[in-house]
Design a protein that fits this description.
Structural class: alpha/beta
Shape: globular
Strand content: 25-35%
Number of strands: 6
Number of helices: 3
Helix content: 25-40%
Order of helices and strands: HEEEHEEEH
Largest sheet: 6 strands, mixed
């Protein structure tokens, strides 16, 4: 009996969707309420922005490939808009190329694991209030079926 094995690799958009889904599921399991594709006040788009049970704001940047990471080196522009920041990558991603400062999540379509805790740098009160209100309004608009991505 001959058995054929076919390896199927996901496209970059499929990988991004799978890692985003798994990271969102992980954040939910950790008590966060995640939203995908949130445009921040500086114009950058966070792949995931999550609100924690104590009001903490966590941003996750999904990297689907080494090329994706190398062409987008603006991750530090997310820091002024969160208490904690992490990269989320798939299991096959070459993690040694990522900077040591942010947290690290490894995820697939079904869930994820925190490999390195994201350092916490608490936001100033006025910025936290503004971001939390924007997050709540964005979530409510999406729940009402209004297509929007920007924090207002």
């Amino acid at each position: 009996m001959e058995i054929a094995v076919t390896l199927v690799t996901a496209s970059r958009p499929e990988t991004t969707a799978q890692v985003t889904r798994g990271a969102a599921r992980l954040l939910s399991a950790l008590g966060y309420a995640p939203l995908a594709e949130v445009t921040l006040p500086n114009g950058r788009r966070a792949d995931l922005m999550a609100l924690g049970p104590k009001g903490q704001i966590f941003i996750v940047e999904v990297k689907s490939s080494l090329e994706d990471f190398r062409t987008d080196q603006k991750w530090w522009e997310y820091r002024p808009y969160c208490d904690a920041f992490a990269f989320a990558v798939g299991p096959e991603f070459p993690r040694q190329v990522l900077p040591e400062e942010p947290g690290l999540i490894v995820a697939d379509a079904f869930g994820g694991a925190v490999l390195r805790e994201a350092p916490s740098e608490p936001l100033v009160g006025a910025r936290r209030k503004s971001l939390t209100l924007g997050f709540a309004r964005l979530a409510a608009m999406r729940a009402a079926g209004v297509p929007t991505a920007a924090l207002e």
